[in-house]
Amino acid sequence: MARRTKIYEGKAKILYEGPEPGTLVQYFKDDATAFNAEKKDIIDGKGVLNNRLSEFFMNGLNEIGVPTHFLKRINMREQLIRNCEIIPLEVIVRNFAAGTICKRLGLEEGMRLPRPIVEYCYKDDALGDPLVTEEHIAAFGWATQQDMDDILSLALRVNDFLSGLMLGVGIRLVDFKIEIGRVYDGDFQHLLVADEISPDSCRLWDIETGQKLDKDVFRRDLGSLTDAYTEVAQRLGVLAKNSPAASKPTLIS
Ligand code: TYD
Description:
D-amino Acid Aminotransferase, Chain A, domain 1; 2 domains; globular; 5-stranded antiparallel β-sheet; 27% helix; alpha+beta; binds thymidine-5'-diphosphate
């Protein structure tokens, strides 16, 4: 088989050239990083779980008419996606206070916010992804006003979809981050949900016990990250309840 061309390698994923023009292969690694990559580890099975979970969320979004980059899963660690131009923003939606908003505004962790709050961070690791306003986004031309209207509406639709899905399995969606891509169809362009949706980029708490089932388990050394992600996948029916823990995955292709 011909060697694939690597397009980009990030902290948790690798992008390869896809089989057809306009497509890419997204490979999920087991690498976990936190605090802007100051804390690093390899977590056996994380990539396999995130590949499956991201497929599940993106398929559901496609199903309800929220466009995403997801085309199909290829194998345990890879999925076929549409190649898009990533808008350099981390779009964060918060339902409850946690993480940086607590520090910034002096809020108590877990406080229900008066309404979902959407924030934007400029994607730049060297700067630590700083929070930016729509003024910065417009002034530096990262997105147009029309894009921002579309991004807000996509972010809120993803929030409603994910919150409902999680509520159904006893999980509170505290906050999450998505990235948005731009694709061109002839003279037209439209936006879609890109990158990944997984417990790496969400805060998920058990509604009854408050147990954390997301990347905070790694950030704060709260136990096994694969156990937490496996629990999320099993509750959602993405993994069978009696399937062996994903901690020792075998690559089948
Ligand atoms: P936030 O509380 O701003 O930062 P941190 O996770 O460092 O405390 O994050 C809000 C949510 O967005 C949280 O679920 C993590 C996610 N997120 C990412 O996945 N990547 C990012 O680069 C950022 C800024 C946030």
